Amino acid sequence: MKLCRKCETEKEIKDFRILKNGKNRTICINCDREYARERYRKNRKSELKKNKDYRESNKETLKLKRRKRTGSIERRIGRDPLKYKETVRRRTKNYREKHPEKIKAHGKVRAALKINELSKPVECEICKKKKILEAHHEDYSRPLEVIWICRQCHIKLHRKKLDEYLDPCRNSAKSTSGDR
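RE: above sequence
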């Protein structure tokens, strides 16, 4: 639990945004949204002018960024966006047909989180950093036995680079989640 410095109510840690340095903000998400809206309302004209000035002074840079960003999409989509959409749909369907146990396990984790049967910790179980976490299944036949790890550790784990770090995490995951 953490105290919001603006509304002065105690809220769960998930109700606070995580900063780039891994720490949580001192005001809750609701107060942060309210503050941003109010600031925009008060300074609307100056904010719009500031954005316009920035766009005008950085035309070439923004044009290159836009080209780079849309270029990669165009390469993936090709000339026909509907064809790309259909390709994604087909690949998703094939994956679901090929791995039904994974799809069921992922769904059970989502459902368990929704009804608070399973709780997501604040930090990665491998690197101990406060980041957005993903559930990793060691065994899909036990869908609620997961270890919570960040994206970077998850990628390394699937590349078999974190086996030496994983043994302590496996033990803690079994003791915290259990069979439900």
